[in-house]
Amino acid sequence: MRLLYFNDFKLGVLKGDTVVDVSHLVQDIPHTGPGNLMNGLIERFGSYRKKLEDFVATGKGVPLASVRIRPPLPKPTNIECMAVNYMEDGTLKEPAPINAFHKSPSAIIGPGDTMVLPDVPAGIFEGEAELAIIIGKRCSNVKAADAMQYVFGYTNFIDGSARGLPPPGNVFYQMKSRETFAPIGPYIVTADEVKDPHKLQVKLWNSGQLMQNFNTDDMAHKIPRCIEWVSSIHTMEPGDILATGTNHRGLNSFMDGDVIELECEGIGRLKFNVKDELKRTWARTTRLQWKETGNEGPHTLQLTGKYAKK
Torsion angle, CA of 187/189/85/81, rounded to 10 degrees? Predict the structure, then answer.
């Protein structure tokens, strides 16, 4: 099943190229708004699934192209992002030590929304293409052998980054938790529809140009281990997001006017815009291209605009 919010945050189920409004079927779930309605449905999905399936089977939808799709999880309790969790197309000799960071839930935006680049002295702005896990039930100190039982589903996820902010050192908070820096969607695909989350092609286009193209089979620490590790640190709640990391070799600059599209195989396509009132520019060079031409540092340099080095 594919769950989404549309228009004024009506809850819908995707049916072909239409969306069926199922809001009336879930109104008895305790909630104060769309933020915790989806979370509540995820937690109680076993009790609602057949009711939803039966209604959608005979219900008439409206064309998906005629509605505004919203972020499917507007207010997760937690967003956790795995760090350096790919083998970079097998070029790393061994996995990096398992690590993650917290990203503010207020960074969430959805399809058709805009990532806004702030007025800060970042060396570059990037967005990392990632497959995200949606947690289905409360989990604490879960063993890897049991971890997949806690996966409700999957969605596309972009980890926006303002790289190189001063002072040097531990700057993950100000680099990662900016408003609009967590685009997700267009919907949640339930786990039963994804045969093997470790064999999905992930593609990101920047203004029509394919920039990232990798497979989740290159993931260093697999999903069960990620859930085991994160849940050993704190409890994860239904509707929480666990982003599984990216292959950094295709990372590229995000600039004003860019149109970004992300498609994790079978999870739909997320499309959003980028805005920068300062109109800063960088070369459209991936990290791999920058390295292969013998340049120093991890990424291309800012060319024009405020904070460009003369």
Answer: 50
